[in-house]
Amino acid sequence: MKVLVLGAGVVGTAAAYYLARDGHEVIVIDRHEAAARGTSQSNAGLVSPGDATAWASPAALKTFLRALWNHDLGIKVRLRLDPYFYLWSLRFLRECTVKRLRANTDIKLRLALHSRDCINALSEETGIHYDERKKGIIYFFRSQKSLDTGTDNYRYLAEHGLPIEIVGRGRLVELEPGLAGVKEKIAGGIYSPIDQTGDSKQFTDNLAAYAAEKLGVKFLFGTTVEGLDIEGDRVRAAMTSAGPVVGDAVVISMGPESGLLGRRYGIDLPVYPVKGYTATIPLQDESKGPTMGGADEDRLIGYSRLGNRLRMSSTAEFTGFDRSFKPRDFRTILETGKDLFPGAFDEKKAVFWAGLRPMMPNSVPVIGQAKYRNLYLDTGHGHVGWTMACGSGQFLADVVAGRKPRIDPRGLLYGTIR
Prior knowledge:
CATH architecture of the domain at 67-95 and 130-195 and 272-359: 2-Layer Sandwich
Structural class: alpha/beta
Largest sheet: 9 strands, mixed
EC number: 1.4.99.-
Protein name: D-amino acid dehydrogenase
Domain FAD dependent oxidoreductase: 2-398
Radius of gyration: 21 Å
Function: Oxidative deamination of D-amino acids.
CATH topology of the domain at 67-95 and 130-195 and 272-359: D-Amino Acid Oxidase, Chain A, domain 2
Distance between the termini: 31 Å
GO cellular component, one term: plasma membrane
């Protein structure tokens, strides 16, 4: 079967790999000049089942409402004349109950744990490397109050299959010597030993090259998807800037643009863009940098060690499809980096980036058949697309093949969107 995958980010490229491995003829279409030039180009670098707690929660509801007028929070809301944002917000607010938080977290954790196994198996099978480190991730808190409050979510994850260790500052520094200089500023944290880190752009670039060379996947870069040619209950072709591309099945994996395309054809796909910011900085003294990934939970900043580079990421900003940024947008990231790892880097050498995460109101990606017999979705992964990409691609391949999925599909398939 000829399958068209719309989008060459980490999610679309992983889907293409698993579909091609199943024997399908796969064509990937993307408007950029190479793979991973959109959302997947830069992120915190964390492959993190430990970050599986859903965003929508009673606490997030309070923060979301405060962000309407306080723009100094980790979540920023810029009010716009965008009716779709208000519709998305209403659906988000409906998810902000303890019951929905737990249900959505269960689904995310199930997929995240499966996906971690998938990326490691894929890496071993293909020989792909991507500045990966498999030392775990530290999630730490600066005050005893935030530690006491924050550990509740991690205890819940532990009860549902995530190995964790609750650590004091002494044990934390033993695990991560890079934080020794700020030991007294940290109350304690959570160590997730199965979490890992890596460069999603490197991974996607290398996987795309492998899929093209070894599995015959064809990539049409510099080609914009303009619409779908639909006849009856089937999609006949993707209409692109280079003309129609005919296929037997189509997968929408276009990141934040997925919702725009889906809505044109009557698909209820509430994906909304949420902007995040990253700074990537070469380490001038590697001994003073981190040795594993981490997250400053009080400042909502994640970081990872990618070879001789430090990657730091922060902010969830609701500002439509605006990808622009200014140097001052990275002030908190750089200040936190200097606070945590003094003398490790020269901030003048930082490379800045901002991109859009494709966020669902319930924080759960949506996968599977949607409305038309041969139209599939693999999108809406939010801030954990890097974590969930391979598991989603493998899950999608099972659905397309009509096989029983290797994990419980409840909550992931399109028909279960609320």
